Amino acid sequence: MAEPVTTLRDVSPSASVALPANAHRGALNIEYRWLNAHLADAPLAVFLHEGLGSVAMWKDWPQTLCDGLGMRGLVYSRPGYGRSTPRPHDVKLPVDFMSVQAREVLPALLDALDVNEAERKRMWLIGHSDGGSITLLYAAAFPDALAGAVAIAPHVFVEDISVASIAEAKTAYEQSDLRSKLARHHDDVDSAFYGWNDIWLSDAFRSWSIVDELDCIRCPLLAVQGYDDHYGSMAQIDTIAQRAAQTQLTKLENCGHSPHRDAPRVLNDAIVAFIGTHSRSARI
């Protein structure tokens, strides 16, 4: 019988960091966790969660992927989610809330955690769903300050299938045990849910699009989508490839909106191969 393998993991609990107020937002406390912090010289992978996600809701997938990549990792809960500052109930998210996260909140978090310019140029962003959209927006806003990006089931425009599924989620939240399940992961579960749900179901958001911003992305880009995704069609990642020619597409059979849960091994293999190829190219 083979000897058991022990993997060294960073098991420290989540911490929080305070981001100062600026002209566009108030002060924020952000929940975050480092992965593989002992790999001090390794590149950093930053994980951006879905519309109802948090540090805890990723479970162990970021750690597993970082182990496969031999990289450090940073997971954090965006404002309104997890243990980060909740959204005040009387404040609605703006239509450009994902742009604010990409251009203001994430850079401020990296500043607060002393992630310097050299580290950012070696950094990879890995985002899912709304986090995938934020990943694309960051890559477009900072085209020379990123090694590459992975967008998993991202949104670049609003589809009817997305709106219909988000409307169904509202019914489930109000009539099933979905609220109690989400409450385990968010300090203010109603703030988290309705912040996401209300903006996506608003009339103003129906015309939201980040397609034009995709033209500004210059870094290596992997876009992933499942064929059984009920929150978006293949038109999302096909559009990314049309606007950013360097994009590599991975389309997954028997996979829904969350490839890291539905097909983690296939997803990890695709990401490790993609990042490995571009890391070797950067050294040549």
From TrEMBL:
Residues 46-270 form the AB hydrolase-1 domain. Pfam families: Abhydrolase_6. GO terms for molecular function: hydrolase activity. InterPro entries: AB_hydrolase_1, AB_hydrolase_fold, AB_hydrolase_sf. Keywords: Hydrolase. PANTHER family: HYDROLASE, PUTATIVE (AFU_ORTHOLOGUE AFUA_2G14860)-RELATED (PTHR43798:SF33), MONOACYLGLYCEROL LIPASE (PTHR43798). This is Alpha/beta hydrolase. The lineage of its organism: Bacteria, Pseudomonadati, Pseudomonadota, Betaproteobacteria, Burkholderiales.
